[in-house]
Structure formats: structure tokens, C-alpha cells
Specification:
- The chain is an alpha+beta fold.
- It is built from 8 helices and 7 strands.
- Strand 2 and strand 3 form a beta hairpin.
- The longest helix has 18 residues.
- The chain is elongated, with a radius of gyration of 20 Å.
- The chain starts with a strand and ends with a helix.
- Belongs to the RecO family.
- Involved in DNA repair and RecF pathway recombination.
- InterPro entries: ARFGAP/RecO (IPR037278), DNA_rep/recomb_RecO_N (IPR022572), NA-bd_OB-fold (IPR012340), RecO (IPR003717), RecO_C (IPR042242).
Length: 250
């Protein structure tokens, strides 16, 4: 395939050393998907490409690409950083996990559309100081569809009831109303408020998100529930998740 110069807009979210003075940097874009870039000379002291490819840098990048495999970064325009993520290890850890989760749902150069918007939403909110844990839970619930296991949250998976008291069944792939609690052995036995939170964060458009006020007990319960949903439906073992979990212990 012919290589060409192309402008892409996106967010750098992962980088590692490549050869003596070069970097490999991953960029997440909306239309061109996730691309791995060779950034030549980025580790040299006076390289202007180094600062432009720090993790969670966002801007327009000019790349030399064939549409598959490694691409080369040539130059950049209007790059900005999310400064709060550099000053706070916890914020950085949450953001790293979110981008890792999205990264593993797609192959390179596959357009990711609304999930790019989801990543950008999360990055901005975390940078602004919004509750990192709840932003991450929102992303996790919305990412289930990208992994092919989108749960039914709008109504009971058995009878279609939309209002009332609900629980969640991983086996049935969604919420179950109280009319069927006695016959659904696979339900998670969540408190009604906990199921309500899962439904809300899974269904609510991100542009309608208001102030998040959820107590720590409920937040911890929904985190455990989401972790269980992922563990039992998706085979993922992300280092960023392990690091985040370890960070929470301290």
C-alpha cells in the first residue's frame, strides 16, 4: 500500500523507548482509529517532538502512513497537554486505564467513532477534578458494547418492565425486575440503589452528566459489580487495571 502524508487529530496515550533515541507512541483518533507512531529522535535533549508526544497530549499530528503497521510522525500543530494528569498520580492512573480499556477493544486503524468522544469526555472530566472513580465506571459500562456484550439496562430482560426495583444478572445480560427475583438464580443481589446507578451511568448520554453525588459505600459496590461483569464476560488482564487497584489500597 502506498505511504502518504496525512494529518490526524488525536490524543497520545502511551509511549515507550524504541531503539537508541526514538519512541513508539500510540495515538487515539476518531476517524483513523488507534495508530502506533515511530517518533524519531524524540529522546534527544533538544527534540521538539518529545514534548508533543507526552502521554495525554492532544493535537493535530502530521504522519507518514500506509494505513497499516507502524507510521512515522513528521510534525505537529496546536498540541496541548492536560496538566492536571501530570501532577496527580491517581488521575493519571485512572486515565491510563480508561485509554487501555478502549485500546484493547479495537484493532489498529479501525475507526472508533463515539468511543473517541467517550475517551475525550473522560480525560476532560478527570483533568477538571470530577470524581475519577465514577467517570471510570461510566466508561466501563459504556465500553461493554464495544466488546460485544452490551447489557440490557432499559428494561427487564424477561418481561420488558421499565420501572420498579431491579437487580442485575450477568448470565441473562442485563437487569431483572423484582417480579422475577424468586426465579432468577443468577442475579447479583445488588441493592436497588446500586442497580439504579449502573442503569443510569450506562444509559445517560455523557453530555447530560451533571454533578455526581454518590456515597462511598454505593460507589464501592458498583465498582465491584462492574469488575465482576468484566471478569465473567470479557477475558481482560490489563496492567493498568492492576496498578489502579493496587493504588486504591494505599
Amino acid at each position: 500500500m502506498v505511504r502518504e502524508l496525512k494529518e490526524v487529530q488525536g490524543i497520545i496515550f502511551k509511549r515507550q523507548k524504541y531503539k537508541e533515541a526514538d519512541l513508539l507512541a500510540k495515538i487515539m483518533t476518531k476517524q483513523d482509529g488507534i495508530i502506533t507512531l515511530i517518533v524519531k529522535g524524540a529522546l534527544r535533549p533538544k527534540s521538539r517532538l518529545s514534548a508533543a508526544t507526552l502521554n495525554f497530549s492532544m493535537g493535530t499530528y502530521v504522519i507518514y502512513t500506509s494505513g497499516h503497521g507502524l507510521s512515522n510522525l513528521r510534525t505537529y500543530k496546536e498540541v496541548k497537554q492536560f496538566d492536571e494528569l501530570y501532577q496527580d498520580l491517581t488521575k493519571n492512573a485512572y486515565a491510563s486505564f480508561i485509554f487501555d480499556l478502549i485500546d484493547h477493544a479495537f484493532v489498529e486503524y479501525q475507526p472508533i467513532g463515539k468511543y473517541y468522544d467517550l475517551a475525550l469526555f473522560a480525560l476532560k472530566k478527570i483533568n477538571e477534578g470530577v470524581d475519577c472513580e465514577m467517570i471510570t465506571q461510566i466508561v466501563q459500562m459504556k465500553m461493554l458494547s464495544a466488546y460485544g456484550v452490551e447489557p440490557e439496562l432499559r428494561h427487564c430482560v424477561i418481561c420488558g418492565k421499565e420501572k420498579g426495583i431491579f437487580d442485575y444478572s450477568i448470565k441473562l445480560g442485563g437487569v431483572v425486575c423484582s417480579d422475577h427475583f424468586g426465579v432468577v438464580n443468577s442475579r447479583m443481589h445488588l441493592k436497588p440503589k446500586e442497580t439504579a446507578v449502573l442503569r443510569t451511568i450506562g444509559l445517560l448520554p455523557t453530555d447530560r452528566l451533571g454533578t455526581i453525588t454518590i456515597n462511598e459505600e454505593t460507589k464501592k459496590a458498583t465498582r465491584k459489580s462492574i469488575d465482576r461483569i468484566y471478569r465473567e464476560t470479557i477475558d481482560l488482564n490489563l496492567k493498568t487495571k492492576k496498578f489502579l487497584d493496587e493504588l486504591k489500597l494505599f
